[in-house]
What does this fold into?
Amino acid sequence: MTVSPIPARRTEQVLARLLQGGVWSAAAVITAGLALSFTARIAPVGAHAVTPWPIVTAGLLLLILLPVARVMAMCVLFLRARDYRFGLVAASVLVIIGLGFVVGVVAPRHAPEHAAPNHRSRDLGD
It folds into this structure.
């Protein structure tokens, strides 16, 4: 088995284009949402009014997902170059990110609705 090294310059260019395109896209979506928020104050609110904040939220979500996209791209680039060691590391990072997402989404749904108050009980006689 021969391991071919990834051309570093090509990899950096691919990742730079991914991040640059992602940042510009996120900025455009956020700007569109903010522009809509300014025009929504001027325009009358009707039955078909578009609320701008989900658009801004989508732009922020896109911005937050950029590091995940970078790790995915690195995983693909390493595996294509048959650099399985770094491909495994990148895949492991993706699994850790995925587990963190699952714990962050699932755990709050299973938390008790009313946690016990954080003060002394009245049964202590104080």
The chain has one domain: 8-108.
